[in-house]
Amino acid sequence: MGLRLFSVIRSRAAALSAALVAAALAPVPVAGPAAAQSNPFRPVVEVNDRVVTQWEIDQRALLLTLFRSPGNPQEAAREALVDERLQLAAAERLGIAPAPEEVEAGMAEFAGRVDLTTEEFIARIGQAGVAEESFRDFVRAGVAWRQVVRARFGARAQVTEAEIDRALALTSRRGGAEALISEIIIPARNPDEQARAERIAADISANVRGEGAFAAAARQFSAAPTRTAGGRVSNAVDVGNLPPELRAQILTLAPGEVSDPVSLGGAVAVFLLRDLRETGVAEAENVSLEYARYLIPGGASEAALQEAASVAARVDTCDDLYGVNQGQPAERLTIETRAQGDVPSREALELAKLDEGETATYAEGGTLVFLMLCGRTEIREEEVDRAAVRRQLIDRRLSAYADGFLAELRADAIVREP
Q1: d(CA 272, CA 277)
Q2: 8 Å CB contact between 291 and 372
Q3: How far apart (Å, rounded) are the C-alpha atoms in residues 400 and 164?
């Protein structure tokens, strides 16, 4: 567990929420190789002069199971605890010891990610067999490591005003930008699908890197039309047209990196950045969108997709859809104008890919939504948040420094079984 402690919490919060509900109904069994040992507190790993006990591994494995972390929970728990011993030793060498109130704040932040108080969270994980002490140790190590990284690398991670200007220029009128992205969109039409989608998206966000691995995951999990192309959106997308929550992430990703999960209303998505480039063309910062929604029964069925293709071939403008809908229930067609920031995320994502007069489809339950972009109009300029961009850039640099430092500690450590 590195500096990404709380970003991992964010990416896994929804999946954890669903897991905690299940934990309230039944314990989560995690079978370990030492489950039948008479002394669960026996040391099983030595890290330099520090030990890790079987009880700690079993406890962490339970917690990782609640997080729906991929892989073998016992092996992952062992690796995480070895890392934490190294991180805590580094903290001690720097004279860093998190104060009790800092640990309490970390626990509260963790619990708050699933809309629980610390006490409620401890009670929920306790029903799954996780002791408060184990949770507290987990958070303490994360808080200490974050302080270590900031103490060692904080000065080097600072960004200049020019760097902030460049990031802001990617979506400002001073210079537009376009991104080549790949997408994985997972249906979340009911609570069961929502929990599954959040779990899968969190796992992809945390573990998938590179276009090849992302394409394989897209073919396996995505419900978007781009699934057959490995999630690749063929055309470059103007970054300024993306939903705000996705736009902010795209600006801080490097090519080959994957976003945190993004809720799209009825779906959960993750995105991979393939390329980001400045266009040199001034773009409006804030626009209104006029667009049409035409509802086709049948979801993503072949018949519905064929009807959508037929409609697309018949229309050149949004007004043409009135003729298509003639004799049909009026509620099948809506044409509306909204500020770009007010457009629902799922629609905003699809509209971002379109030029005026172009169309797209996506499934929404048992309905196929046929979207057509009627037009974009600038309405006003909005104030940019330089502080938010600064934080994002600094956090990315600190994460990179943290990963490198932990790798050094690992390489120099003596890790053995007693």
Answers
A1: 15
A2: yes
A3: 18
- In whole angstroms, give the CA distance from residue 347 to residue 243: 9
**By CB neighbour count within 10 A (0-12 exposed, 13-18 middle, 19+ buried), where does 19 fall?**
buried
Q: Return the residue matching tokens 């996506």.
A: 362
Query: Phi-psi region for residue 77, left (φ > 0), alpha (ψ -120 to 50) or beta?
Result: alpha
What are the CB-based long-range contacts (under 8 Å, 24+) for 383-390? 384/168, 384/172, 384/285, 386/164, 386/168, 388/248, 389/164, 389/167, 389/168, 389/251, 390/159, 390/164
φ, ψ at 89 (rounded to 5°): -65, -40
Whether the CB-CB separation of 279 and 178 falls below 8 Å is answered with yes
DSSP E strand boundaries for 202-323: 237-238, 262-263, 267-278, 287-297
Q: DSSP letters of 353-393?
A: T--TT-EEEEEETTEEEEEEEEEEEE-------HHHHHHHH
pLDDT tens, 299-316?
A: 889 999 999 999 999 999
**Residue ranges of domains in the chain:** 5-156, 173-278, 287-378
Query: Helix, strand, or coil here: 275?
Result: strand
How much of the chain exceeds pLDDT 90, in percent? 50
| CB atoms inside a 10 Å sphere around CB 2 | 22
| CB-based burial label for 179 (10 Å; 0-12, 13-18, 19+) | buried
Residue 271 CB partners (closer than 8 Å, separation 6+)? 181, 182, 183, 184, 246, 249, 250, 258, 259, 262
Is residue 245 within 8 Å of 254, Cβ to Cβ? no
Query: What class has domain 5-156?
Result: mainly alpha
Verdict on whether the full-model pTM lies above 0.70? no
Handedness of CA 191, 196, 199, 204 (dihedral sign): negative
* Same-fold call for 5-156 versus 287-378: no
Convert the pLDDT of each residue in 6-60 to its tens digit: 444 444 444 455 455 444 434 444 444 444 456 888 999 999 989 999 999 999 9
Residue 277, beta-bridge partner list = 178
Residue 329, both tokens: 């229930």
CATH class of 173-278: alpha beta
Instruction: Write the CATH number of the domain with boundaries 287-378.
Output: 3.10.50
Neighbours of 106 (CB within 10 A): 24
pLDDT of residue 27: 44
Dist. CA 281–CA 276, nearest whole Å? 14
> What mean pLDDT do residues 146-171 have?
82
